[in-house]
Amino acid sequence: MKVQIETEFIKLDQLLKFAGICGSGSDAKELIWEGVVSVNEEPCTMRGKKIYPGDKVFLELGDEYLEITVE
After folding, report:
1. CB under 8 Å to 62, separation ≥6 — which residues?
2. Which residues contact 37 (CB under 8 A, 6 or more apart)?
3. Rg, Å, the chain Cα set
4. What stretches in the chain show pLDDT beneath 70?
5. pLDDT digits (tens, 9 = 90+) for 16-34
């Protein structure tokens, strides 16, 4: 999945909402705290992590993996 942003960066929790992965900030926060999110192949538990164009966010949802590329 590719997501295009119009700003310099987007925070990780906002990206998950913007991409339609989570319906609310609390849902995004919970996913991040569960440890199923990584940024550029590094585990990330910081919901305020700045995501820049070119970064890749990975989510492990059960048996499925979802990749979000920010453009």
Report:
1. none
2. 12, 16, 31, 43, 44, 45, 57, 58, 59
3. 11
4. none
5. 999 999 999 899 999 999 9
